[in-house]
Write a structure and sequence with these properties.
mainly alpha; 71% helix
Length: 93
């Protein structure tokens, strides 16, 4: 069995025990809200209907597009699905 009682180990252990007592836990400092968050909230609330309403009502427009444009259904469907594709592709940026 190996036991070490060298002075170097005792000094090192003493340094570790005293250094742990000196560590102070500090809370992170957060900046106070200056009202800019409300601008972002209002902007997001206004842009959501612009992005979502055309996607949810595209089925109603699809019937009108079919009667207005004498094309195949697959070609007419691109007009409805293009908005949803752009919202999901550009929404990441």
């Amino acid at each position: 069995m190996f036991t070490s009682s060298s002075p170097e180990h005792e000094v090192q252990a003493e340094r570790l025990s005293t250094s742990n007592n000196k560590v102070k836990k500090t809370e992170p400092e957060y900046e106070t809200d200056t009202g800019y968050a409300w601008v972002i909230l209002v902007a997001c609330s206004l842009i959501m209907p612009v992005a979502v309403i055309p996607m949810t009502t595209s089925g109603m427009f699809y019937v009108e597009f079919l009667s207005s444009f004498p094309q195949y259904g697959q070609l007419t469907l691109w007009a409805c699905s293009l908005n949803a594709a752009l919202v999901y592709l550009i929404g990441k940026f």
